[in-house]
From TrEMBL:
CDD domains: MFS_SLC18B1. This is Major facilitator superfamily (MFS) profile domain-containing protein. One of its GO terms (molecular function) is transmembrane transporter activity. Residues 11-408 form the Major facilitator superfamily (MFS) profile domain. It comes from the Eukaryota. It comes from Cyphomyrmex costatus. GO terms for cellular component: membrane. The chain crosses the membrane at residues 47-65, 77-95, 101-130, 142-167, 173-194, 215-237, 249-269, 281-303, 309-329, 350-372, 384-403. Residues 1-23 form the signal peptide. InterPro entries: MFS (IPR011701), MFS_dom (IPR020846), MFS_trans_sf (IPR036259), MFS_Vesicular_Transporter (IPR050930). It is found in: Membrane. SUPFAM superfamilies: MFS general substrate transporter. Pfam families: MFS_1.
Length: 497
């Protein structure tokens, strides 16, 4: 990070401040909105849906933002998202002036939906800008953003509760919403503009196309599983801890433990993914840590020990370590894997992966609390927590098998001119283990031939890698036939006459 340019430092600072302020505005209503809603006659299921609809909208809208990021412009999407979130925060603070049960609930839903659209725009754009500005330090800088966002989620309810106590319902929304406006103004002047260039002129395809890549699919599974574990604890931790008769202050601190651990350790995981580890190694490690953490929080049915307060505390710390590893590694892994499978290394791809990350996280955050409530009612916390343990065991095993079998991604198509030494690619291929060679096609181009490095990975890798290989990509474009090296007669005559 010491080698960052002035532009990179300014970009990182303003996005981090905006991320922090945005997280505060998104989370500040948690301590006192339910109480205000009950005064208006709203039931727990009604105001619970007000919180749940936020994640559902983020899940739906984020891929759309990501797919059209290059057309909209990341800076415009970024600032528009902040302004929308800040405006909605202020409007949300005026809901206590609304009379009547149904007008209150309907306006709550509408404001929360628009706020979710702004939050999704901000997050999608910020992740894409980071990937564009820091191509060699994506993991570290992404983790830094997540640190500030995590701190905002911790500070939001705390500061919001204090301001509510001082000035009533409207005060926290007015103060913190205005702070987000200030952050938006600073980014409007400081944040660089990223224009399209010639290399970005073609379409990368939609989310479904990138999800067909096995490595990206596994990263998405990791994100969903991690956000489900977070949502599970949000919905069930307080009832589980009632047995200890904790004071409100101590109970609030219990909710901060895993988020605080995540915020503090995320940069370390990002640094490891950037410099030493394959991201899927961090994913496997994160799954293992989450399994241990949830086994201690319960504790798991197979642990015969009587529960003490130190067991859930230790479990929450370990869970924070695991979720940091998974969330940081998943973004880095999805971005690298999609580019290695032929997606262009440009802003359009960054937006696509950013939208995918935001969307899948929101999906898990929506599903997690819903399943948690059902499991808590039916089988209790100790048995219900085994659902998260088994889910992460499944994701960890899949990631480990993929890492051992399919770690070699297909190499992109390479063009060579007629004056280049054709022996150079062959010599390089020999150095890489003889898995690749080049046949000249008579027009000054070379077509790489992908051959599997070993039969042991054919079962897992073959179905996708054949389609993603260089020969198959060339045949899709119509330039080469499926006869592995020959050129169709009609096309050949057109090119040579």
């Amino acid at each position: 990070m010491a080698k960052f340019t002035k532009r990179q430092w300014l970009t990182l600072i303003v996005i981090s401040i905006a991320d922090f302020a945005n997280a505060i505005c998104v989370s500040l209503q948690a301590p006192f909105y339910p109480q205000e809603a009950e005064k208006k006659g709203a039931s727990p299921s009604e105001y619970g849906l007000v919180f749940g609809i936020f994640e559902l909208v983020v899940f739906i809208i984020s891929p759309i933002y990501g797919q059209h990021l290059n057309r909209i412009g990341p800076k415009l999407l970024f600032n528009g998202g902040i302004l929308t979130t800040g405006t909605c925060a202020i409007f949300f603070g005026l809901l206590d002036k609304v009379d009547g049960h149904y007008p209150f609930i309907i306006l709550s839903f509408l404001i929360r939906i628009v706020e979710a659209m702004g939050n999704a725009a901000f997050l999608t754009a910020s992740f894409a800008i980071i990937a564009k500005e820091f191509p060699n330090n994506v993991g570290t800088t992404f983790a830094s953003l997540e640190t500030f966002f995590g701190l905002g989620l911790i500070v939001g309810p705390t500061v919001g509760g204090a301001l509510y106590q001082i000035g009533g319902y409207t005060t926290p929304f007015a103060v913190l919403g205005s702070a987000l406006f200030v952050a938006a103004v600073s980014t409007a002047f400081i944040l660089p503009v990223h224009n399209n260039n010639d290399n970005d002129a073609h379409n990368t395809g939609g989310v479904m196309k990138v999800l067909r890549i096995p490595g990206v699919m596994i990263a998405s599974m990791s994100i969903i599983g991690t956000s489900m574990s977070i949502g599970f604890l949000q919905a069930t931790l307080e009832p589980h801890l009632r047995q200890f008769k904790l004071s409100p202050v101590v109970l609030g601190l219990m909710f901060v433990i895993n988020g605080g651990t995540y915020a503090l350790t995320a940069p370390a995981w990002g640094w490891l993914c950037d410099n030493y580890w394959h991201p899927k190694v961090a994913t496997v490690a994160g799954c293992f840590l989450v399994m241990i953490g949830f086994s201690l929080v319960g504790p798991a049915p197979f642990i015969p020990s009587t529960i003490t307060i130190w067991m859930p505390i230790s479990g929450l710390v370990i869970h924070g370590l695991g979720m940091a590893a998974q969330l940081v590694a998943s973004f880095t892994d999805a971005l690298r894997t999609s580019i290695s499978f032929g997606f262009p290394n440009n802003l359009e791809t960054y937006g696509l992966i950013s939208g995918l990350w935001t969307s899948t996280f929101a999906l898990g955050a929506f599903i997690g609390p819903s399943i948690a409530g059902i499991l808590l009612d039916k089988i209790g916390f100790r048995n219900g927590s085994m659902f998260i343990v088994l889910l992460h065991m499944l994701v960890g095993v899949i990631a480990a098998v993929f890492l051992s079998s399919c770690s070699r991604a297909p190499k992109p198509y390479v063009e060579i001119s007629t004056v280049e030494n054709l022996r150079a690619p062959l010599m390089e291929s020999d150095r890489l283990g003889g898995s690749r060679s080049v046949h000249p096609n008579g027009r000054g181009q070379g077509v790489p031939i992908d051959r599997p490095g070993g039969m042991n990975s054919l079962i897992v890798c073959n179905s996708y890698s054949n389609r993603a290989g260089a020969w198959s990509r060339a045949s899709y474009s119509g330039r080469y036939s499926h006869s592995y090296g020959s050129i169709e007669n009609k096309r050949y005559l057109e090119l040579t006459t």
